[in-house]
Structure formats: structure tokens, C-alpha cells
């Protein structure tokens, strides 16, 4: 086989391997079992399981961290459940919570006592909604929450509250598929190296490949 064609094929293989490495990132499943604790593992390799011993209930993934509730306290932990630290301690246990890693706002619902949003590092500035707020969901830069049979949407600071949908019965939970939620995966650094090497080899192969119609003089 022509050496230059070989180099192009090798380059293509490298780029393909890089893309495969990007999409084959390990899946982590987090499950909370109340007083029996919180566990994290890859369903394909369940023997390797990490855990948190406590009364873990609601969970939320934001940025590179896991946030979970234990009674009135919201905790922050690394993806492998190491480095567990309190994020915020409430007087009463919230019904649900969500954390926006980009804005640093913590959202907590307290049923009949309303919904609140604030930065745990600057709790003096608090935004609120007066109503029977229960389930929460963050998507597309907005906060969605449930009040009885109705799902509402609002801006990040809880302004502009508007009805999204009204049901005949009260849903147990809900989720929002925002238009920007299906973005493409971002390659890991190692994948970038493989892709750059592959494209460089492909470019070199094309650069030095014999041009069609070239005449060799003897």
C-alpha cells in the first residue's frame, strides 16, 4: 500500500478513536435511599461503588459537582462523593432544591411557604415566590416549578413568573427538555490531542501526495 495513503488511513483512525473516546465517557448513576445513604456507580461496573452514609434525599448535578439534601442541609460533593461539605443549612427541610452552577444561585421550595433563590455566599439578597411551590427544575437559563396542578416558568431571579401548563391532576414530578439541552459533547484533552495529531497527519499526507497530471522528467 502507498505510504502516503497509509498515513492518511492512520490519521483517520486516530481521529475516529478520539471521537469514540469522547462519546464513551463513563456513566455515573447516583441514587439516594433516605436513611440508607447515597450511592454512586457506573451501571456497567457496579462492583466499584462509592457512598455517603446519611439521610440523603433530593439530588442535583450542576457543573462538576453533586448536590444533595440531608434533612434541612444542602451538601456539595465531588463527582465521586469525596469532599462532602455543607452548602447551606436551613431551619426546616425544603421540599425540593436546585443549584445553578453558572450563577451560583440556590433554589429551594418549601411548599406552602413559597420558593426562594439566593447565593449561599451572599444570602442577604434573596428572591422569592409566594405560593405552594414544590418540584423544581432548571433549564435554558430559567427556573421551572410546580404549584399544585400548574407548572410555572420564571427568570433566574424569579421575576416574570408565567404559567407554562395547567393539569387536571397534580403531577408527581416533571422535567423540561430545553432547546439548548442537547448540545454536542465537548472532547476531553486527550481526545483533542488524538484529533489534532490525526488531522495533522492527514494534512501532511495530502500536502505531499503526488499531484495528478505531474510529469516526471528523466
What fold name stands as the CATH topology of the largest domain?
Neuraminidase
Radius of gyration: 25 Å
Mean pLDDT: 84
* Sheet with most strands: strand arrangement: 4-5-6-7
Describe it.
The protein is α+β, with helices and mostly antiparallel strands and 218 residues long. The protein folds into two domains: 3-21 and 187-208; 27-182, Neuraminidase (6 Propeller). It is 19% helix and 40% strand. It contains two helices and 15 strands. The strands form four sheets. The protein has a four-stranded antiparallel beta sheet with strand order 4-5-6-7, with no helix packed on it. The protein is globular, with a radius of gyration of 25 Å. The model has no long low-confidence stretch (mean pLDDT 84).
Summary keywords:
single chain; 218 residues; alpha+beta; Neuraminidase; 2 domains; 4-stranded antiparallel beta sheet; 2 helices; 15 strands; globular
Quick structural gist:
This protein is α+β, with helices and mostly antiparallel strands. It has two helices and 15 strands.
Give the topology, please.
Elements: H1 3-23, E1 29-32, E2 38-42, E3 45-52, E4 56-62, E5 65-70, E6 73-78, E7 85-89, E8 96-100, E9 105-109, E10 115-119, E11 122-129, E12 133-139, E13 142-147, E14 150-155, E15 162-166, H2 189-208
Antiparallel strand pairs: 1-2, 2-3, 4-5, 5-6, 6-7, 8-9, 9-10, 10-11, 12-13, 13-14, 14-15
Helix pairs in contact: 1-2
